[in-house]
Amino acid sequence: KMQTDVEVKQEATIPLTLETEILALCNDNPKGISDKSLESAVAGYDVKQRVTAINRLLTMGKLELLKGSSGLIYRIKTPSAVGSISGVDNQEKLVYQIIESAGNKGIWTREIRYKCNLMLTEVNKILKNLESKKIIKAVKSVAAAKRKVYMLYNLQPDRSVTGGAWYSDQDFESEFVEVLNQQCFKFLQQKCENAEKETTLSPTATNASSFASSEEVLEFISKLGISKVTLSPEDIETILNTLIYDGKVQQTVVPVANGESKKLFKALKPLIETTDFARTPCSLCPVFNECQPGGEISPENCLYMDEWMEY
Amino acid sequence: MSSRECLLAYELLQEHYGKIAADVASFLLQNGWQPLRYIALKANLKLDQVRKALCLLIQHKLAKFHVRKRKIVEYAINIENVLSILFHPKFIYTVKLLYGDAAELIVEEALQHGIILMSTAIKNVADRLPDENGSGKIEKAFKDLVQTHFLQREPEVEKNEEEEYIVPIFTQNEADLYRLPTLSEESLKRKRSDDGSDEPKAKRLKSEHETPSVKDDGVYWSVNISRFQQYFRDQSIVASVTQRFGTPCGEIVRAMLRISEVTTPANAQSTQPISSAEIARSLPQKLPMEHVEQHLKLLSNDEDQIVQLFDDSGSGGLYVVNLKNSALALATATVLSYVQQRYGSKACRIFRLLMLKKHLEQKQVEEFAMIPPKEAKGYLYHMLAENMVIMQEVPRTPDHAPARTFYLYSVNIQRLSRILLVKCYKTCTNLMTRHNHLIKTNKRILDKEERITAIKVRVNATLPDADEAQLEEIEEMMTSSERTSLTKHQHCCNKLHTAQNQLLNTIFVLDSYLNALSSA
Q: By Cβ atoms counted within 10 A, which residue in A255, B253, B270, B328 is the most buried?
């Protein structure tokens, strides 16, 4: 880069016109322009000049270089906030750019340090600085409790960082999930019972009307007003999935118009009540494996059995 | 066969047939086929004792024998039959519900004798049921039991003149299994008149007895254990279908099972195909034909596949009850219920998740089950420590470094059924041990109570006009504290018995699943 800079100074006039031409080209193609089409558009200049001009534009931060599906792509860089902030030095600018490129997924300190090649203390100082100016913010990730990720201040963190509807601060709201789990089941159960009350229906019709779509469940849940955040049908489906794993709900897929299919859910009754084995104290005994007739722990002197027989 | 089963078998045999029989059986269980003298030598028993014990066990179909190298007779134990002693009360109760008191007593006699002559059984029952005059009713009950295959005919000794064989050879025609001999009124009467001539059955195999030849001589009957198991299995299938799909579906499955009850072999995969019209005809409460068909369709769409569509040609189609799938579904439900009870509902969710998705990493488990990582880890490790889930390492590099290894969790229902069954056997042994212990500790009070009852009976018999004061005096021989400990003892015994009987349901479900697997 240093070499090309020197050259630029030596022959300043040609590159300048070239630069403005390239910028204009890029302005016309806001999605970016590939290396080849750029080459054919500015055919009047040789390769060296073109490279010099592009390098200069890149260092000035007016262009950005992207890797597209068909090779390199040049794109006009949107005038970022960094330019408008006074008192930002080059290092801060670098860190800012790294954070900006991470988007709403955020980036971890170690990654930043790795990318900008600065000292840890320096990076920390810059981050602190930028944070106090409300240019960037730190968000705690749910993936790793102790890991902070940085992103631009005005960005909404991605679901993978916040964990979606089930997290408040990076804590998993297991109680919220449990309540939703119970309410969804209650709704489906109610639907089943209502269907069974209609004695005039045929078995198939009874069965069909016990099923509900995730949208119906969502509607019920939103009416209850137990959720502070707005839930999507997908959120409800994850909850309904937990009910499937609980063995309380079954799922079926029905085709709807234009070849798509829709998931329907129905409350499921268990095949057996609690197993009879669970009625004996031994089934839940913590020292079952140590128990031996005549041993230190034995059925003869078992305290659990004593209590159970008293009952 | 596990050591737990052996221990339970020992307890059961000791309780029902005494210590020597139990010792012999336990030796055979540990060592397999063994000749008579070797048993006596190694088990430190007298030859005669062992011989008697073996006779007893063979009589009750608990032991079997074969000839090795044409001259050594060896013996072994039928562990399935020994463990089915647990079910004897259930057999008797079932028969009582189905066919009444006479049948109950017939089965009781049959269980007590192991194998029994029809005439003896009828005579004994008639003695015990004095109010039911005439053996006709009892004979009918007996015939009912045979026709529904609850009793079966034992193979007969082949008459062989040559002295080539050292053990009796048995033959049996498949067709004869449930064929009744014709009993003349005369033979029954004679049986009743000479009370003492009951031949010693334990020696039947060896004795050349000279009792007057009644028509049913040599035709012995025994309780058909697999038929009872089949009945229990049908019951549990109907119960679970009713539980999940409601009464009409339960009735439909019951009808299907009843139609193919006698014609389906015990170890069949599924019942014979039955048309929906036939099912509708044999329902106790008539349902509209289209309802029956719709119920059947819904049942066959269920993922457990208890009822399956066999062939949809013709009107309505043919349906079967898939017995293997039912066994699997019931065993799975039992295992899940156990997990739920022991580890909680969230652990159960994880367990079922693993069942549905086969192999998962810990992180995936947390995400799918929506359980916080810390909790999920706790449940998983707890279940892993107690062998409920299996962990499989899949290393990405040959060095098995933890950071570069996938740890996949999975569950295996078959394995767990086995584990759970053994747990049930151990629990059963525990309950029995505790029961025996209770009787031992309260022996003094129990003896005293027995004495007092005896005195009361005697007083009532000898002095019909004994006054209140005298009876009260007898009552007061028992102090109030003794009385309370007696009631407490009885309460505890009841509790233990109930638990043991309930445990049988679980044992049955798991056992029949494992049997269905091994027979397939």
A: B253
Between B240, B340, B368, which is nearest A245 by CB? B368
B 415-434: CB under 8 A from A: 420, 423-424, 426-427, 429-431, 433-434
Pairing between β-strand B390-395 and β-strand B405-410 as defined by DSSP bridges: antiparallel
Instruction: Provide the whole-model pTM.
Output: 0.76
CB pair distance less than 8 Å for A272 and B371: no
**B371 near A CB under 8 A:** yes
Inter-chain touch A272–B341, beta carbons under 8 Å: no
Distance (Å) from the C-alpha of residue B368 to the closest C-alpha of chain A? 7
- Cβ contact, residue pair A239, B370, below 8 Å: yes
Query: Which of the 8 DSSP states describes residue B302?
Result: S
- The CA distance from A269 to A192, in Å, is 10
Alpha helices in chain A (DSSP H): 2-10, 13-28, 35-41, 47-60, 81-84, 90-101, 109-116, 120-132, 159-162, 174-197, 203-209, 214-224, 233-245, 303-310
What are the b/e assignments for B432-457, b being 16+ CB within 10 Å?
Answer: bbbbbbbeeebeebbeebeeeeeeee
Domains along chain A with CATH numbers: 2-76 (1.10.10.10), 81-162 (1.10.10.10), 172-267 (1.10.10), 279-310 (no CATH)
Give the DSSP H/E element, type plus range, for residue B151. strand B151-153
Please give the Cα distance from B81 to B87 (Å, whole number).
10
Which are the contacts of A171, defined by CB distance < 8 A and separation ≥ 6? none
Q: Which residues of A touch B (CB under 8 A)?
A: 166, 172, 174, 177, 181, 196, 202-204, 207, 238-239, 241-242, 244-247, 250, 268-280, 282-284, 288, 291, 293, 298-300, 302, 305, 308-309
Look at residues B80, B74, B11 and name the one whose alpha carbon lies nearest to residue B39.
B74
Per-residue pLDDT tens digits for B16-48: 888 888 888 888 888 888 888 888 888 888 888
Scanning B320-359 for CB atoms below 8 A from A yields 329-330, 333-334, 336-338, 340-342, 345, 348-350, 352-353, 356
Yes or no, beta carbons of A274 and B340 under 8 Å apart? yes
Query: What are phi and psi for residue B398, nearest 5 degrees?
Result: -65, -10
Q: Which residue has 């078992």 as its token pair?
A: A302
Which residues from chain B sit within 8 angstroms of residue A299, using beta carbons? 429-431, 433-434, 437
For chain B, 520 residues long, give each residue's pLDDT as a single digit of tens.
Answer: 678 888 888 888 888 888 888 888 888 888 888 888 888 888 888 888 888 888 888 888 888 888 887 778 888 888 888 888 888 888 999 888 888 888 888 888 888 888 888 888 888 888 887 765 566 778 888 888 888 888 888 887 776 655 566 677 777 766 667 777 665 554 455 444 443 334 444 434 433 333 444 466 677 888 888 888 888 888 899 999 998 888 888 888 888 888 887 777 767 788 888 888 888 888 877 778 778 888 888 888 888 888 888 877 666 678 888 888 888 999 999 999 999 888 988 899 999 999 988 898 888 888 888 888 888 899 999 999 988 899 998 888 888 888 888 999 999 999 999 999 999 999 999 998 999 898 988 888 888 888 888 888 887 777 766 667 777 777 777 778 888 888 888 999 998 988 888 888 889 889 888 888 887 6
Q: Beta-carbon neighbour count of residue A28 at 10 Å?
A: 10
